[in-house]
Amino acid sequence: MNYSKLVSELLKCIGGKENIKQVSHCYTRLRFSLYDDKKVTNEKVRNMEGVLNAMFASGQYQVVIGSKVDEVYEELIKQAGIMEVQQESTMQEKNTFKSKQIPGKVLNVFISCFTPIIPVIAGCGMIKVICALLLNAHILTDTSSTYAILTIFGDTVYYFLPIFVAYTAAKKLETDPFTSMVLAGILLHPNFAALATEGVNTTSFLNIPIQIVSYSAQALPVIITVWLMKYIDKFINKICPNIVKIFLRPMLNILITAPIMLAIIGPMGSVLGNYFSKFVDIMNHWGWIAVGLNAAVFPLLVLTGMHNALIPLIITMFSTQGFDAILITSGLVANIAEGGAASAVAFKTKNKELKGTALSASISALLGITEPALYGVNLRMKRPFAAVMLGSLISGCIAGILGVTAYAFVSPSILSLPIFAGGNGNSLIGAIITVPVTFVITFAITWFLGFKDISSEKEKLIASPVEGKVIPLSEVNDQAFASETLGKGYAIVPTKGEITAPFDGQVDAIFETKHAIGLRREDGMELLIHIGLDTVKLNGQYFESFVENGKKIKKGETLIKFDLDKLIELGYDVTTPVIVANTDKFSKIEVLHKTDVVLSEVILHVE
Question: What topology does the record note for this protein and the membrane (predicted)?
Answer without folding.
Answer: Multi-pass membrane protein
